[in-house]
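input
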Amino acid sequence: MAIVRTPAGPDGIDFNSPIPYYAQLMQLLKGKIDSGDWPTGSQLPGEPELCNLFGISRTVVRQALGEMEQQNLIIRRKGKGTFVAEPKVSESLAQKLTGFYSDMVERGYRVATEVLHHRVTRAGDKIASYLQIAPGAEVIDIRRLRFVNEEPIQLVTSYLPYALCPRLAEVDLAHRSLYDVLENECGLWIACGKRFIEAVGANESEARLLRIERGAALIMLDSVSFLEDGRPVEYYHALHRGDRSRFEVELVRERGWSAQSEVAQRLARAGQINGVGTK
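output
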């Protein structure tokens, strides 16, 4: 792969500016990426060449590249060089419940699914608690590896009460959305959900499936989805590649809201829950 070059010229470091040299260099390099001059996967000039091109020290270059790596704009591969990173795949975290497949397709990505297992099994205590069913009750257990633009991005395991959707046990989800099947073939509409997010490291099996190194950062998403009548219909445990994923949250501030009133309401609720009277 050819190394991209940055021609010397007016777009260089302003040594009279109060802006730190490394910050200026970052902006220049990011400009090349944003403009498409340096496409995804292309190799940046080496540290000595960047020093010569911009008349700066290697310390400045390393600081700029380090910041860009932290922002996931570039990838530094030992013994190979520095490359423009793939942009992260954005997914809606809280504002809608369309499901991973529909969310990705809506954003223009090519989505593929490999079903690792799809079976009826018995719920353990943890799954039963999430789904509000008796331990040992039958559940549909589905584990899928999700690809975006032919790259493995998400490893997800879903558990659903068999009694609610027995038809689901017979449906091939390799080319279908789970939520689409629930709605159109099982007559179940997911109205709301509760999600928990945490950073974890990949174990050996997860790393192999997601094509990453063992211990690499993953974003773990646990979620319980509910029907309109409040019954839990799905518990899922999803692992997203930390180097390729980010989540978007849309926040809305309502008129008449104030921190003081919110605190008062929370204290009142806490008093009711704990059986403590308030005056």
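quick obs: The CA atoms of residues 90 and 246 lie 5 Å apart.
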